[in-house]
User: Which sequence fits this backbone?
């Protein structure tokens, strides 16, 4: 968050590739100054998209091959490192900073919502 200009921090959101990431970030992120996390994965998508004006978007655990199709202005901003050397599916993953979803959140949400294991 410190990399974002102060005028963007209040509108920023996190978008994750799966509900586990979103749930962990919703639970532990606020104490670390992170914005609210959303995900289109499985039942988490039922809670809906972020507000239409929410941007920039911090994207975590989302497949790179889909990133440019779904979001505008993305660049890698960090790499996930749990600091403990624990190997899991998030460790070493890219964290992207994007301007906004293509077409806005309401248009993008049906495309971002997905059911899978």
Assistant:
């Amino acid at each position: 968050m410190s990399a974002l200009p102060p005028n963007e921090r209040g509108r920023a959101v996190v978008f994750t590739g799966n509900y586990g990431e979103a749930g962990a970030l919703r639970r532990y992120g606020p104490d670390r100054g992170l914005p609210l996390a959303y995900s289109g994965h499985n039942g988490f998508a039922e809670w809906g998209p972020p507000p239409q004006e929410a941007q920039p978007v911090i994207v975590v655990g989302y497949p790179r091959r889909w990133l440019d199709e779904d979001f505008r202005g993305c660049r890698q901003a960090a790499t996930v490192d749990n600091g403990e050397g624990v190997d899991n599916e998030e460790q070493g993953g890219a964290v992207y900073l994007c301007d906004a979803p293509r077409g806005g959140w309401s248009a993008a949400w049906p495309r971002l919502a997905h059911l899978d294991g």
Q: What stands out?
A: Residues 6-112 form one domain. The first strand starts at residue 13 and ends at 16.
